[in-house]
Amino acid sequence: MAMTPNQTVRPWGLSRMAPHCSVAPLEYATVTFDPETQLTHFHDAGGAIVDMQRGTVTTSQGGSDGSANSPKVADDSND
């Protein structure tokens, strides 16, 4: 198929895209960062801290020596 200089071609991937999902409203109005604790705090419109109720700590089986009974260890432990 020959193309003319002014012909635009729709990228193939655009034909495979689905419509965007609906966006949920934010649970917070502002975000602050405490440099001493390295924690981010989410605040509502009234200034109260919002509990985001989401953790990032996961546990995994410790050791890779084939030991079947090794204890579970937090991946982000400071030990």
From TrEMBL:
Residues 53-79 are annotated as: Disordered. It comes from the Bacteria. Residues 55-70 have a biased composition (Polar residues). InterPro entries: Actino_peptide (IPR025843), GRASP_targ (IPR026496). Pfam families: Actino_peptide. This is ATP-grasp-modified RiPP. It comes from Nonomuraea glycinis. The lineage of its organism: Bacteria, Bacillati, Actinomycetota, Actinomycetes, Streptosporangiales.
